[in-house]
Amino acid sequence: MVDLALSCKSHHSRQNGVSCLTVIIRKDAQQVLAWTDPTTNQSGLASILSFIARLLQSQEESGGLFIGDLIIHLMRKVGEAVLPVLPELLQAMLLRMKTAKTATFIQVFSRAVFV
After folding, report:
1. Could you point out which of 42, 66, 77, 81 has its C-alpha 20 to 30 Å from the C-alpha of 35?
2. Confidence (pLDDT) at 34
């Protein structure tokens, strides 16, 4: 799912990928933690965090509306599993907020930072 969403050039397709991943995290986060990509040997959590990092590098404002919910649910559902990378995740989010152009984008990310 992550590979498919990252390979899409369409903004709409990436948003749908983020929405699907958010639902997966909300419904069965433990399955994501247990899964390993057989081709890369990367954990499900690492794959999602890599996906989030790539999306945070994008300058698309509307993408932030969807990625914020994914980050919130990820932190709520996998809790301690995110702790090792939490400082980097928060730093990336804060750096992205500095370049935001809309108040809505900043509000969504602020909500994620203060979960």
Report:
1. 66
2. 92
Buried b (16+ CB within 10 A) or exposed e, 8-39: eeeeeebbebbeebbebbeeebeebbeeeeee
Beta bridge partners of 36: 43
Distance separating alpha carbons of residues 38 and 111, to the nearest angstrom: 34
Amino acid letter for position 33: L
Q: How confident is the model at residue 54 (pLDDT cuts 50, 70, 90)?
A: confident
- Is the pLDDT score of 110 beyond 80? no
Domain range summary for the chain, segments of one domain joined by +: 2-113
- Judged by phi (left if over 0) then psi (alpha if -120 to 50, else beta), residue 79 lies in left
Please state the rounded mean pLDDT for residues 73-89. 87
Give the whole-angstrom CA distance, residue 82 versus residue 57. 19
Q: Which residue has the tokens 């990092």?
A: 53
This prediction's pTM: 0.78
